[in-house]
Specification:
By secondary structure, this protein is an alpha+beta fold. The protein has two domains: 123 residues, no CATH class; 70 residues, no CATH class. It has a two-stranded parallel ribbon with strand order 1-6. Helix 6 packs across helix 8 and helix 8 crosses helix 9. The longest helix is centred in the C-terminal third of the chain and has 15 residues. The radius of gyration is 24 Å and the shape is elongated.
Length: 209
């Protein structure tokens, strides 16, 4: 199958016969394809908040992880003389050869998956994952997070803000990034009490949806 953009160029007459760009110029590997590219060392693939993805995604990924490869149908159907196609990758200005439309790894990538625990995943998929449970940070850890992101000077006069945040976090109303947003506003000179400052952060988030 010819890439639609390439076909449009030929039909428009903007290219001469035999001079049109190769189909590989219109194929770009995403993060998964990039992680399966051959290299001297395994690559790392991060799949963030997997439970927010399509319900079939874990099973689709399981097949790829078991076989270490996947097919690009548009390339696999090309004639024999075009069995090897150089495609674009997520690496800047780097192309990679794809033979018969198969992207296959030499070394299995290190796959890191995060989940909010909103739904269950197939047991076969979980058996191929290393599970790490990260507990909610306590007050001391929250102070470290604030200092790491906003500097130690941001820790001045945030005791009330931390107390309000921890009291609201129990029912799951707030996440750590909301605390960082509130501290940033306080650091920027927004003179509101802790409750109104957190309300302002939630209002901004709600209005953006």
């Amino acid at each position: 199958m010819m890439a639609p953009h390439r076909l449009a160029l030929i039909r428009s007459g903007t290219t001469r016969r035999g001079s049109e760009p190769g189909i590989g110029q219109y194929v770009r590997l995403g993060p998964l394809g990039n992680a399966l590219l051959a290299g001297p060392r395994p690559r790392v693939l991060l799949i963030d908040e997997l439970d927010k993805g399509d319900v079939d995604l874990p099973n689709d990924l399981l097949t790829v992880f078991e076989e270490g490869e996947f097919e690009i149908p548009e390339l696999s159907r090309l004639p024999e003389e075009h069995s090897t196609v150089h495609v674009r990758t997520d690496d800047p200005n780097v192309s990679a050869p794809v033979v018969r439309g198969r992207v296959r790894c030499h070394e299995f990538p290190v796959v890191i998956i995060t989940s909010n625990g909103e739904r269950e995943f197939p047991p076969a998929f979980l058996r191929r994952c290393v599970r790490l449970d990260l507990p909610e940070p306590d007050e001391e850890r929250l102070r470290d997070i604030v200092a790491a992101h906003l500097g130690h000077e941001a820790l001045h006069a945030i005791d009330e803000l931390l107390e309000e945040f921890l009291s609201r976090r129990a029912p799951g109303e707030l996440a750590t990034d909301q605390l960082l947003n509130a501290v940033f506003l306080r650091k920027s000179g927004i003179d509101l009490d802790a409750g109104r400052l957190l309300d302002a952060v939630l209002h901004q988030l709600g209005g953006a949806v």
